[in-house]
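Q: Can someone sanity-check these two? First one:
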Amino acid sequence: MTKRGAAAAMAALMGVGMLAGCGSTGGTQTSAAAKTSAAAEKTTAAASAASGNSSSGDVSMVFAWWGNQTRNERTQNAIEAYEKDNPGVTIDGQFSEWNDYWQKMATAAAGGQAPDIMQQDYQYINQYAKSGQLLDLKPYIDNGTLDASKWDKNMLEAGTVDGKVIAICAGMNAPALVYNKTITDEAGVTIKDNMTLDEFVTAAKTIYEKTGYKTDLSYGTVQEPMNYLLRSDGVVLFGDGKLNATKEQLTKYFQVYEDGIKEGWELGPDVYADITIGSIEQAPIVAGTSPDKSAWNTLMWSNQYTAMNKLAKEGMDLEMTTWPSPDPKKSDFIKPGQFFSVTSGTKNPEEAVKFLNYLINSTDCNDILLGERGVPINSDVADKIKSQLDETDQKIYNYIYNVVQPNCSVINPPYPDGYAEAGKALNNVVEELCYGQIDASQAAEEFITQGSAALAAKAGS
């Protein structure tokens, strides 16, 4: 596949989440009486739900998620434990790779066959919520079926759209620059936390000069790094119906790509032509076969660090730090690694919420899951499982709590409608830039035109 073809495929994958709006489902929510349950009833309901006890008879539900094989195995084991403790409840676990997941969800929603519980992502929750496909969980929090007393309140807010709680954070996450310390040590370069963009570029040049290894600036998935950088300017890149960045602001960041290609220290687009964009297994940092085809770093997320570490070759010491930015504290944030949502068309909303409560609040369940989706939002659960984690997962916990949390800002609002199309425009423009077809200034102009048009076309629809 050519690189342009790979970019087109990625763009298509980014866009399929928009198809979910074609489906229309209606759901049953708790009554006003349920909201005003007595305190004793709340306590009983919360305790029953946390343990996973079901009294509703035979129930069959579908739970869908994306992820790697480790996530698949742990989640299936947690399902089996829940079914064992809840006779009569059957949960069909449906696992997909990220590249297939959103197409499957879009198709299922359009056909009125959405799963009862689905794993959600921050970039899609607005679209699913506005199309009425996600159940409002606030009544279940109010009546105690879903116990939010030990949750990080910012993460609860992150899953709230128009006053409705439509997604619960499955694990806290943060941007993470993973780097090969073996290479940086060879170059005599120290990679520190909260690097500025200038410090990062200087380090990248030195590493290339001393070792021949290049820098992975992100390719085909540029929307998150660009959004991150613009936060340092106080800009939320993707607005409702428009881009919020100026040509000058965009040009200075596109210039980093242009300079890196011209000066040789950045991986060229040809390296990505025959790999699957976004695949951890094919990331140049672990899959590269020679310095000119490899990278000393990659931009990813903290909850992917464990999987990346398992791919490290012998003699490769992978460490983790923050993404670079002109103002790291303004740019950095804690993000829901994924969400869990209950779909509004479920025939068993109460039972679906009980299972969701089990996933989030049960220490027995999380003894199985072990924070693979990110640091748990329930503080008691997080404290309990931390001691059971290996050295790699302990690093993730320490990174979230000791590096990111003290030096970050509130996450941007969920992405607006049109984000997928605007992201496609951004990646296409970066492709043209890296192939030398346009310069940084022209890239900024093209992106403003194309990205704003994509957002405007979806605004209010």
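And here is the second, same format, sequence then tokens:
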Amino acid sequence: MNNYRVFQMDFGKIYGLLLDKAVKKGRTKDEVDEVICWLTGYSTAELEEFCSASVRYGDFFRNAPRLNPNRTLIKGVVCGVRVEKIEDPLMREIRYLDKLIDELSKGKPIEKILRKGEG
């Protein structure tokens, strides 16, 4: 799938997929929301609003109120690609979220996922 198609996807649909992945592994909606809010600066109320509105996934990241500066500490592989090596800045932001949800789903403590105390 090319980047353009990913950027055009509906945020609500992607959010549902991310939530399903985490919940199936015993995590909660609140934890998923906390991770997304930490990364983007959106509030949980805004996330709820975006799920019912028609917001494109690319626009969700382009318009994020304050991307967390510690997001650059996120390292690792998602879909066979190292997130820190992704050249397209928007795709890198999207893959940061994918990596955080992967960590959440694998049972990593929320404090470590949110890179608290690092940086």
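A (reply): Looked at the second one. The chain has seven helices and two strands. The chain has a mean pLDDT of 94.
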